[in-house]
Amino acid sequence: MNQVQKNYIAGQWVDGESTVKNINPSDHSEIVGEFAQASAEQVDQAIAAARVAQVEWQATGLEAKQRVLQAIGDEMIGRCDELGEVLSREEGKPRAEGRGEVYRAGQFFQYYAAEVLRQMGDTADSVRPGVEIDVRREPMGVVAVISPWNFPTATASWKIAPALAFGNAVIWKPANLTPASAVLLAEIIAKQDIPAGLFNLVMGSGSSVGEKLITSETIDAITFTGSLAVGKRVAVAAASNLTKFQLEMGSKNALIVLDDADLDNAADCAVNGAFGGSGQKCTASSRLIVTAGVHDEFVAKVKERMVKLKVGGALEEGVTIGPAADAKQFAQNKEYFKLAQDEGGLLVCGGEFDDSKGYFMTPALFINTTNQMRINRDEAFAPLACVIKVADYDEALAALNDTQYGLTGGICTTSLKYATHFKRNAKTGCVMVNLPTAGTDYHVPFGGRKNSSFGSREQGKYAEEFYTEVKTTYMKA
């Protein structure tokens, strides 16, 4: 990307008021590209264009809408190697994970292409003779999409696809850390037969573009994925305008391992869940709650797997752990690693740092930690996991639920009794049994409880609740 990459507003690619450089975290001497930053006036232009285009899109036939979303999904899947490489280069996840993310993002568009044709209403007889009732859903209008850097294509897609499928216009502000992936997705959407202004890409910082969107009185709905602190700011701003909003924020997920667990599977689940994506996942299992009877054997098996992980540049052959996303995240990783040591955690494996070329950290595992330590309360977003030894299932479940968050929770056990009880009593939005805490499907609801999420669920048929509003019609002949 040698030329400055532009914003896409009202059907046109346009320069911004400034630019930012996109740095490769695997090699911070390399610039991926330079990207335009939208001005406040351009955000207003995008919203105005979206309001006009949305009316036309809402009136567009279902099959035409279906073809648009299907074409976007098909192209993303067909180009997943190419697009995935760009994603990995700018975000840092290994090539296979980058490719997989783009492929999954394409599946979101394909799924919602089919969902376009499955929009059904309800009918009912009134309590009044001769009156019939029709209940249907209509689009919210203009939706602001604010997406994160850790899954720059997938998270944006699972918001943009249903927004378009249910008849809305979109203003998308991607994370400034991963603009190249955003531009590539925008290019695919822009080439479709859609009204000018239906889809808009406005790149910029959260303090400027993001703030403009969340405080706008002409935005009908806001969907946000990011930190808890910023999510609270979105909530305050949206509530002041009575704007509908949906938040996916932080978490501090735990994986319970019981004495009766298949320990090889449990160790695989722990390593996959804790360290995949360099630990930069909201579904990462950074707390490993293990009963005393298998504690030592489980830790040994996890360590055995950890030393085989290859840390390196995202596009290097055989790499399983890429770099931290940028210098800020790398510094935070160091801070939480030191915190774990200062609080009394005993390092079992990993924790080596090297930023001579990229922002590399070997995955770290600590034992001798308690659930009250700050390292087990804060979301570090690092390849760092802490083992918490407990006496039994009851203590394990209490520890898992003792957090301000509640996105995913997992258990490894061969007991139907414990698995069933856990499924009903884990205070998380997603429950995993004998599986990693990271890894969800696109056709079912996703979201958490407590401070992890606010509002209706994302993904699957449940997304309809956020992107539409209900209209009840009474008719008398």
What does this structure look like?
The structure is a single chain. The chain is an alpha/beta fold and 477 residues long. The protein folds into two domains: 7-250 and 448-476, 3-Layer(aba) Sandwich (Aldehyde Dehydrogenase, Chain A, domain 1); 254-433, 3-Layer(aba) Sandwich (Aldehyde Dehydrogenase, Chain A, domain 2). 38% of the residues lie in helices and 22% in strands. The chain is built from 14 helices and 22 strands. It has helices spanning 40-59, 62-78, 80-91, 95-116, 154-165, 179-190, 206-214, 228-240, 263-275, 295-306, 327-342, 393-401, 416-425, 464-467; strands at residues 7-9, 12-14, 18-23, 31-37, 122-125, 131-139, 142-146, 169-173, 199-201, 221-225, 244-248, 254-257, 287-291, 346-349, 353-354, 360-361, 364-369, 384-390, 408-412, 430-433, 453-454, 468-476. The protein has a seven-stranded mixed β-sheet, sandwiched between helices. A six-stranded mixed β-sheet has the order 9-8-7-10-11-21, sandwiched between helices. A three-stranded antiparallel β-sheet has the order 5-6-22.
